[in-house]
């Protein structure tokens, strides 16, 4: 099972994209629709609302009088909480039913118009955003929904901005062209990414292998790191003691392998057992054979360098998740090296040369062991310099 979020500004083409995903085999979870269903005419939900707020909230046609309910709860927080106390559990139960019915191989698409406004993006394994220029959206809303231009623009202004939605997107689905072009993009997303991603999660398979290729730095790496870190933090819940983007893609301007390295801090590695399922739900799968960082030569207690290691299951973006004990030397080291490289451009340039040589030498090495092995001596020699920098600047981890 895979749970993804789909959003887009009003008129962007979200419904068009979600219809296509359903044709391809996805299960649509439409929050608005469910919220209406659980209080539809004749439902126990509606009866309970009438009990709480009086029979006049049901109109002559047997439907809920939405305007009346809205006016009752509008300026009364206690009443609003009472209403939510009735509807939220019903919505939760109905959603759980739909998820259960969809079965273990389902790709669930949460149609969430206000995902970014509500800040719910981190709970999904992937977020797709239908992205359409504002003027195009206005034109389509005027033509297809009979809105005036002023009305369309007013609604757009009330929503999150395009930039905010783009920052939440793992996948952008531009829709300035024809509907056929959007459908073709959705088809590619489904076949090349969602289907293999779902299978990887279900079979507990992280994406691995591939020769280490060092590419030019991408200005989007920082935002991608934040997005993925938020997902890990959501999955870790109260077990997590902070998630950081580490590694080369966290150093602006440094060419690197196109991989997001993340570090999740925990109190104890045993606690991670409870995170295996929640992390799988956001697309991170444990690779149990990797359990140890290379301790710095001088450390008398190599066990302090233990970690648990997860890899992303999304074939569209590589993620390495290192889970380490908060305060342990390996945890501190990852943050120290990142911050030192961020601060020292000469060290960065040196490291880049070593990486390039390592990538070249390791050629087609699929598990990159030789690549990593080739970089280690440089790090061993660099550590005293990083420590000297930390001492002189008063650096602290986090
Ligand atoms: P949303 O659900 O994001 O508000 P819709 O999918 O309902 O947007 O699209 C808004 C309107 O624009 C609909 O009438 C839809 O048929 C139309 N539409 C969507 N994509 C295109 C496109 N590429 N070209 C022309 N019209 C489109």
TrEMBL record:
Annotated Pfam families: CoaE (PF01121), GrpB (PF04229)
Location(s) in or outside the cell: Cytoplasm
The keyword Transferase is assigned to this record: yes
Reactions that this protein is recorded to catalyse: 3'-dephospho-CoA + ATP = ADP + CoA + H(+)
Record keywords: ATP-binding, Coenzyme A biosynthesis, Cytoplasm, Kinase, Nucleotide-binding, Transferase
PROSITE patterns for this protein: DPCK
Organism superkingdom: Bacteria
Pathway(s) where this gene product acts: Cofactor biosynthesis; coenzyme A biosynthesis; CoA from (R)-pantothenate: step 5/5
Binding site for ATP: 11-16
Known function: Catalyzes the phosphorylation of the 3'-hydroxyl group of dephosphocoenzyme A to form coenzyme A.
Name of the protein in its database record: Dephospho-CoA kinase
